[in-house]
From TrEMBL:
PANTHER family attached to this UniProt entry: BNAC02G09200D PROTEIN, ENDONUCLEASE_EXONUCLEASE_PHOSPHATASE DOMAIN-CONTAINING PROTEIN
Domain Endonuclease/exonuclease/phosphatase: 66-189
Superkingdom of the source species: Eukaryota
Organism, as annotated: Artemisia annua (Sweet wormwood)
Protein name: RNA-directed DNA polymerase, eukaryota
The keyword Glycoprotein belongs to this UniProt entry's keyword annotation: no
């Protein structure tokens, strides 16, 4: 790679603290490049092909081996089927966690295309590859489609992230978001970890449990007292608060409920 090309990568990345692997363009076929931060991902091996780049390595804070597969799917149906067969054979021969991503040039079902011809054979071949390779197709957030023509009459979901099902156990909060288009007719697709706190897990209590002899062993009375003291709700602690406002021991004696009504709107 020339100095000019390295400078272009630097301009995209923002600094020179990067490592990369590339598959150069051939004829009318565009090239591929994978870029990563060496402080976050330690490269061990690289395999390059016209349609993919595989980078083997380890992520910081993770002991498992990862294979990052950057894919540009061919247009031809037979070439696509050959690509899935090649990648499946590679994954069978190399143990580790897999993250496969890029412009795969294929959809999984008819709902992922609009205004263009859907190929059931291509979809079946792709779905079989996903199933046989134990991959999980992460749902996209932000947009339904990742490619659109200039006229806006054709749209498809061509870009996605496929990950090993084992990764969903170690990274359960993995998300994929479709970003705004800038220079390409494809939307950038971002993989990220977004841990959302929805509050305490809901708890159900069935009336029939009251007849169980061991119910007293589930929640100790001393635990209830300790939790009440921790939250300021122990017996005799008045006035308590409702919606952040002090309430007396007898709610009927509250002078004005207007403040509560405003908060409750």
């Amino acid at each position: 790679m020339t100095r000019l090309e390295l400078f272009r990568i630097k301009s995209m990345w923002g600094n020179y603290n990067f490592d990369y692997a590339c598959s150069l363009s051939r004829g009318r076929s565009g090239g591929l490049i994978s870029i990563w931060d060496p402080n976050s991902f330690s490269k061990q091996n690289i395999w390059c092909h016209d349609s993919y780049i595989i980078v083997q390595g380890k992520w910081l804070h993770y002991d498992e081996t990862y294979y990052m597969i950057n894919v540009y799917g061919p247009q031809d149906s037979e070439a696509k089927a050959m690509l899935w067969s090649t990648l499946h054979a590679f994954m069978h021969d190399h143990n580790g966690n897999y993250m496969l991503f890029g412009d795969l040039n294929v959809v999984r079902d008819e709902s992922e295309r609009y205004g263009s011809v859907f190929s059931r054979d291509e979809a079946d071949s792709f779905n079989t590859f996903i199933s046989n390779s134990n991959l999980v197709d992460l749902p996209l957030g932000g947009r339904q489609f990742t490619w659109m023509n200039k006229a806006g009459t054709k749209m498809s979901k061509l870009d996605r992230f496929l990950i090993s099902d084992s990764i969903t156990d170690s990274i359960p909060d993995a998300r994929v978001t479709v970003l705004d288009r800038l220079w390409s007719d494809h939307n950038p697709v971002m993989f990220h970890v977004n841990k959302v706190d929805y509050g305490p897990i809901s708890f159900k209590f069935f009336h029939s449990w009251l007849h169980r002899n061991d119910l007293d062993e589930v929640i100790k009375s001393e635990d209830v007292v300790a939790m009440a003291r921790r939250t300021g709700c122990e017996a005799g602690s008045l006035p308590f608060k409702y919606l952040g406002l002090p309430i007396g021991s007898n709610m009927n004696c509250t002078d004005s409920w207007s403040d509560l009504a405003i908060i409750g709107r």
